């Protein structure tokens, strides 16, 4: 073990390409976590297991960018919640929401849903129609909202399978003479005369007519069902995987770093104390160390997670229990060496307290080694936690990467070809691990010059 | 060493004991109620509801006493009794799980599962170490060469992927996208049929490839580091000066000197392979110790948990012991100390 000053380490580290790459990856992961914390409301990850939150998302759909590699463009799942609003106050008032869609995909949408809440009183009429790229206008639905003398809020979801929509479409297409009974409403709307997809700009009009003007559309959303959605796609439970993956980052960093720091600090102090004290204390402490070393870690972690608690914070503690052992052994042998140095003996002779010698003279010597081992033990902590979560024993309230993989496994993602559900979480685990391994290796090479050559 | 074993056992019993008691007690209460509903004459023979309740409670208490559940699980005689039975290798009967042949004796179940885990993971570990040692020796002898760089890079990258995740990807690729290997590792035909061995080997291929693929890089890297250290020593330079061929130096002299730590790691990873396989076996559905352990924990089958933990710990301790002995054999310097 050599004496390397901190400035020297910094200089050497700046020379190491691998170390810099590691720092780079780590920095981007931290930035990602910060972005996650700032932009995505904390609510989203608490809602992770609430199916109601994800209702307007598509089921098991691939990421949006697969379309770049496809000759046949897969329809995108579109959630249009930003209509242009027109209001007219006449004898009959009109509130109109218009949703424009550029439809240029090679397949029909799987369905469409119009979801709205409207506050009104009296009798109102709701009319939905669509203007197609060939300028033909089809009336889809015309229905009156339930009458009310007082102000009420009406909430409704209108599905493309709605019978009156089907009837209206039948009337329209029978007139121009190519109605096909077996084709669903959405396919008819988006089809040309040959039954192919009619590409171009569609405009969905939602009009509410009333005799009094006190109509206010609070919420209005048109969902065009598709098979690709979002940057990372969605899973079987309609959850947006991008949200889960991004939220997994701070969790993984938290687990990895806190376990590594906790176990290294504990092991370091334990080992140094044993080595410094020597004799019977050393012997006893090392025997205890051996006992922990001989415990089968993963089985015990599983038993602990099942019997005591699977909270993420408790799990961090359990992981620490099993990971300080190796560090304690190494730091003990290092402490044995340092103990014999003259300045330690001198300060002992001067009557300094043991704790002061340990913390002022011995541990600072071991710090470079400690940093290297922190960096090296982070990936193990992350993969172990992911493994426990993968078995379904992790904390269900947090969307960790292992949790996502657990869901993927239970819903048979591999068998159904849903690669976007399996690959990204593992890649994230590996990238995070790699960042710390790179940093650790770079530090290790500086601390142990023998490996460098 | 014996002490370690006992502490492990004690910890296991302490962790699962209380839950086990609750499950057993509930089981007894359920059993008593079921018996009463089955024979209505018992219920009719009581005049009042209180009397009937009294009877049920007495029945439950009586049965608990015969099973020794009236004393808490941490009472010395119960723990002592459990530990004594385990020491004479009598693990008792499993509560829920059975072996494939239908026996619920824990010893039978373990004996059935261990060979399968050994077949898969020990084979994998041996293949990994052979590839690792040669690749590591090659890389270590040419520090800075292309082989060395590729090996080191591969080691670092492969070690950050969890084996089970790579397993999932492999299943996705080779079992579903290209249908070369079966997705489930449990053979679909019965063990009595003549083709069973072949089927087992065929089903074993995918997990074996996965484990080897992820494992050998780390090994090669470790061996490489030991080799780099050894090759810097004086006696190697002396041998080079005498004119012994490079190949002979690497494989005979340097590798032999790097052997002690390598053997220690080999022994530890062999025994570790038996227990660390829980997740991998779950992914590939391999019917070995790891999956047994996981199933036992998910239904809280206490005798199996204790038995399996005991066996794992014993194997681990034996391999530490053997590793120590071998270390002394290969590196006589340790003996005199």
From TrEMBL, chain A:
GO biological process, one term: transmembrane transport
Location(s), subcellular: Cell membrane; Membrane
UniProt entry tagged with the keyword tRNA processing: no
Chief place of localization: membrane
InterPro entries from the UniProt entry: MetI-like, MetI-like_sf
Domain ABC transmembrane type-1 intervals: 253-440
GO terms under cellular component: plasma membrane
Keyword entries, A-Z: Membrane, Transmembrane, Transmembrane helix, Transport
Membrane topology summary: Multi-pass membrane protein
Membrane-crossing segments per the record: 20-42, 251-276, 288-306, 312-331, 366-391, 418-443
Family: Belongs to the binding-protein-dependent transport system permease family.
Protein name in the entry: Oligopeptide transport system permease protein oppC
Organism this protein belongs to: uncultured marine crenarchaeote SAT1000-49-D2
TrEMBL record, chain B:
SUPFAM superfamilies in UniProt: MetI-like (SSF161098)
Membrane topology: Multi-pass membrane protein
Protein localization: Cell membrane
GO terms under cellular component: plasma membrane
Keywords: Cell membrane, Membrane, Transmembrane, Transmembrane helix, Transport
Transmembrane annotation, as ranges: 118-140, 152-176, 196-222, 262-284, 304-330
GO biological process, one term: transmembrane transport
Pfam families: BPD_transp_1
The ABC transmembrane type-1 domain, residue ranges: 114-327
Family to which this protein belongs: Belongs to the binding-protein-dependent transport system permease family.
Protein name: ABC transporter permease
Organism annotation: Marine Group I thaumarchaeote
Lineage, uppermost ranks: Archaea, Nitrososphaerota, Marine Group I
């Amino acid at each position: 073990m050599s004496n390397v000053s901190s400035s020297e380490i910094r200089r050497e580290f700046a020379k190491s390409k691998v170390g810099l790459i590691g720092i780079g990856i780590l920095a981007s992961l931290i930035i990602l976590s910060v972005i996650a914390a700032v932009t995505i409301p904390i609510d989203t990850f608490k809602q992770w297991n609430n199916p109601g939150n994800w209702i307007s998302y598509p089921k098991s759909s691939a990421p949006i960018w697969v379309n770049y590699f496809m000759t046949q463009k897969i329809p995108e799942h579109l959630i249009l919640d930003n209509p242009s609003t027109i209001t007219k106050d006449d004898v009959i008032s009109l509130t109109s929401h218009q949703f424009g869609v550029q439809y240029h995909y090679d397949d029909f949408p799987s369905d469409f849903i119009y979801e709205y809440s409207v506050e009104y009183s009296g009798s109102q009429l709701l009319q939905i129609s669509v203007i197609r790229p060939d300028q033909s206008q089809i009336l889809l639905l015309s229905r009156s909202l339930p009458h009310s003398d007082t102000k009420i809020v009406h909430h409704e979801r209108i599905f493309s399978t709605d019978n009156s929509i089907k009837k209206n479409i039948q009337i329209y297409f029978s007139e121009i003479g190519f109605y096909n009974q077996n084709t669903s409403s959405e396919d008819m709307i988006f089809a040309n005369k040959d039954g192919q997809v009619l590409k171009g700009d569609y405009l969905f009009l939602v009009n509410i007519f009333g005799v009094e003007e006190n109509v206010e559309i609070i919420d209005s959303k048109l969902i065009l069902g598709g098979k690709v959605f979002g940057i990372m796609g969605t899973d079987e439970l309609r959850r947006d995987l991008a949200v889960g993956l991004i939220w997994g980052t701070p969790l993984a960093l938290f687990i990895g770093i806190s376990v590594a720091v906790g176990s290294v600090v504990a092991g370091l102090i334990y080992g140094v104390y044993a080595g410094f004290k020597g004799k019977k204390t050393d012997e006893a402490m090392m025997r205890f160390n051996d006992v922990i070393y001989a415990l089968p870690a993963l089985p015990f972690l599983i038993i602990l997670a099942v019997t005591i608690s699977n909270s993420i914070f408790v799990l961090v503690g359990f992981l620490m229990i099993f990971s300080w052992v190796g560090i304690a052994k190494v730091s003990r042998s290092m402490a044995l060496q340092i103990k014999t140095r003259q300045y330690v003996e001198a300060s002992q002779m001067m009557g300094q307290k043991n704790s002061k010698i340990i913390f002022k003279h011995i541990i600072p010597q071991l710090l470079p080694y400690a940093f290297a081992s922190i960096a090296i033990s982070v990936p193990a902590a992350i993969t172990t936690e992911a493994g426990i979560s993968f078995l379904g024993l992790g904390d269900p309230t947090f969307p960790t990467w292992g949790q996502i993989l657990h869901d993927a496994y239970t819903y048979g993602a591999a068998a159904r070809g849903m690669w976007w559900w399996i690959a990204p979480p593992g890649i994230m685990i590996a990238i995070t691990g790699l960042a710390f391994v790179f940093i650790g290796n770079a530090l290790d090479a500086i601390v142990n010059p023998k490996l460098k050559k | 060493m014996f002490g370690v074993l006992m502490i492990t056992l004690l910890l296991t019993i302490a962790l699962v004991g209380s839950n086990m008691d609750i499950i057993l007690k509930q089981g007894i209460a359920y059993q008593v109620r079921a018996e009463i509903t089955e024979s209505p004459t018992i219920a009719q023979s009581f005049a009042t509801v209180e009397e009937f309740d009294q009877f049920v409670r007495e029945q439950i208490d009586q049965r608990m006493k015969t099973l020794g559940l009236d004393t808490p699980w941490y009472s010395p005689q119960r723990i002592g009794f459990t530990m004594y039975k385990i020491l004479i290798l009598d693990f008792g009967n499993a509560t829920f799980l059975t072996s494939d042949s239908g026996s619920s004796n824990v010893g039978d179940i373990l004996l059935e599962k261990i060979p399968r885990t050994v077949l898969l993971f020990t084979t994998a570990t041996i293949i990994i170490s052979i590839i690792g040692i040669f690749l590591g020796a090659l890389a270590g002898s040419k520090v800075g060469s292309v082989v060395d760089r590729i090996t080191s890079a591969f080691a670092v990258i492969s070690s950050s992927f969890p084996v089970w995740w790579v397993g999932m990807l492999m299943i996705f690729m080779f079992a579903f996208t290209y249908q070369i290997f079966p997705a489930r590792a449990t053979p679909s035909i019965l063990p009595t049929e003549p083709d069973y061995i072949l089927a087992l080997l065929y089903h074993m291929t995918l997990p074996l490839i996965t484990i080897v693929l992820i494992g050998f890089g780390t090994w090669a890297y470790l061996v490489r580091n030991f080799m780099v250290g050894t090759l810097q020593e004086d006696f190697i330079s002396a041998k080079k000066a005498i004119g012994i061929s490079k190949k002979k130096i690497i494989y005979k002299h340097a590798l032999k000197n790097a052997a002690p730590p390598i053997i220690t790691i080999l022994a530890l990873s062999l025994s570790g392979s038996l227990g660390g396989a829980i997740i991998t076996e779950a992914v590939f559905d391999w019917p070995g110790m790891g999956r047994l352990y996981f199933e036992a924990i998910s239904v809280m089958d206490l005798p199996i948990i204790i038995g399996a933990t005991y066996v794992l710990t014993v194997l681990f301790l034996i391999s530490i012991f053997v590793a120590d002995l071998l270390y002394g054999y290969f590196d006589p310097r340790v003996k005199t100390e």
